[in-house]
Amino acid sequence: MSNYDYDLFVIGAGSGGVRAARMSASYGARVGIAEDRYLGGTCVNVGCVPKKLFVYASHVSEEIHNAKGFGWDIAHTTFDWSKLINNKNAEIKRLNGVYKNLLDNTGVETIYGRATIVDDHTVEIDGKQFTAERLLVATGGWPMVPDIPGKEYVISSNEAFFLESLPKKIIIVGGGYIAVEFAGIFNGLGVDTTLLYRGPLFLRGFDQDLRTTLAEEMQKKGINIKFNSNISDIEKTDDHLIATLEDGARLEADQVMYATGRIPMTKDLGLEKVGIKLDEKNAIKVNEDYQTNVPSIYAIGDVTDRVNLTPVALAEGMVLAKRFFGNADKPVDYSDIPTCVFSQPNMSTVGLTEEQAREKYTDIDIYKSKFTPMKYSLSDNDEKTLMKMIVDKITDRVIGVHMLGPDAGEIIQGIGIAMKAGARKADFDSTIGIHPTAAEEFVTMREPVKA
């Protein structure tokens, strides 16, 4: 038994912090965790979970439209924004309780308040100090809004989850997951939606074919996308906001939402007191063991700004708990991490993009299929699904799989397992498809496209 109050003290009760805390406690460690906002962190409260609920809600309008082709006459439909918000809040409150039970049931002591680091082994919360053999920072990230004139009139994704009323017209600024997803959400709920991005094409880092096709599909759904555009200032009138673009154009809206990136939450943690090193983006620098330059202090998740995905933070938390207290040390494998953008249509990917594959491999085959899903065959919806597979010709190994279309995330998750197991193109070819599904296309693509 050490002389410290805890064996591990975690700052931040988001996904990674909670996983590290409760798994450590399950191994018999004395664990404390501090949280000054809400249990579950960004993902549960103002991120993945409520956003996915909003995606479901926004897609209903399209389902109602498509229903006509199947013989349904659905009239007098109305949408109640306040009911969606209230139901979403109730579900998040339930999940907060689930996280509390997870911590309580494993013996973790939860302390509500802002924790700051005092020294290598000490944190302070509301004037009271707690010591631990190891400290773990898992405070996540926070939306960043650029400093432009009129910034005070702007909302981020955080506020979008709690708007008192649904705007009639919105401008969304950004080109990442959050901007693209919220453009689909607001458009699906009947809001006149404009998406601005300063670059030539959004979702940088994803496969070019999918990015281009998604832009086309979003515009077909009525979203006004303006690439190579940015706001210089925003002014407020009695009834509206006026956004002036850098090229002098002026756009009117009821709401302007910025989704231009997130920054690590390292401010006011007391990191400077112990000399913890940060990078140029103020993320905590860690080594391959998630250890900072102060040996007793560790960091995981978005606060390190490396692979900013909830399941990655969970995996890092699990690895640390096992390493500290479970007598196991199997590192996180960061290769071939599946991910999904819950755009409309969904875009999901695992492995290398075509651009990355051409840089890494000398000879590759590209397989592609673009079609209208069977679901839309009885409607006037001409949304296209795009599937793409990248194969190393020398080894026949599948090195990248990409999909744009309904349920892309659900389909790519299983393919991610196959790729982790080293699947070859021959393995896909010898697998019998489930008919009729879109997913079977991945096992029936026989001829590569010409380079």
Write the layout of secondary structure elements.
Layout (H helix, E strand, L loop, with lengths): L5 E6 L3 H12 L4 E5 L5 H6 L1 H20 L13 H25 L3 E4 L2 E5 L2 E4 L2 E10 L3 E3 L10 E2 L1 H4 L8 E5 L3 H12 L3 E5 L11 H13 L3 E3 L4 E6 L4 E5 L4 E4 L1 E4 L3 E3 L6 H4 L22 E3 L10 H16 L13 E3 L5 E5 L2 H7 L3 E8 L13 E8 L5 E7 L3 H13 L4 H5 L22
By DSSP, the count of extended strands is: 22
Number of helices: 12
- The structure class reads alpha/beta
Shape: globular
- Annotated CATH architecture of the largest domain: 3-Layer(bba) Sandwich
Number of domains: 3
Q: For the CA atoms, what is the radius of gyration?
A: 24 Å
Report the portion of residues in β strands.
15-25%
**Integer average pLDDT:** 96
Give unreliable regions as ranges.
none
Can you give me a brief rundown of this structure?
By secondary structure, the chain is α/β, with parallel strands linked by helices.
Commentary on this structure:
Helix 1 (about 15-25) packs parallel to helix 9 (about 310-325) and helix 3 (about 50-65) crosses helix 6. This protein has about 450 residues and is α/β, with parallel strands linked by helices. Helix content is about 30%, strand content about 25%. The protein has helices spanning about 15-25, 40-45, 50-65, 80-105, 155-160, 175-190, 210-220, 270-275, 310-325, 355-360, 410-420, 425-430, and strands at about 5-10, 30-35, 110, 115-120, 120-125, 130-135, 140-145, 155, 170-175, 190-195, 225, 230-235, 240-245, 250-255, 255-260, 260-265, 295-300, 340, 345-350, 365-370, 385-390, 400-405. The chain is built from 12 helices and 22 strands. The protein starts with 5 loop residues before the first strand and ends in a 22-residue tail after the last helix. Strand 5 (about 120-125) and strand 6 (about 130-135) form a beta hairpin. It is globular and about 70 Å long. The chain folds into 3 domains: about 5-140 and about 265-325, FAD/NAD(P)-binding domain (3-Layer(bba) Sandwich); about 150-260, FAD/NAD(P)-binding domain (3-Layer(bba) Sandwich); about 340-445, FAD/NAD-linked reductase, C-terminal dimerisation domain (Enolase-like, domain 1, 2-Layer Sandwich). The strands form 5 sheets. Strands 1, 2, 3, 4, 5, 6 and 17 form a 7-stranded mixed beta sheet that branches. A 5-stranded parallel beta sheet has the order 8-15-9-10-11. A 5-stranded antiparallel beta sheet has the order 18-19-22-21-20, sandwiched between helices.
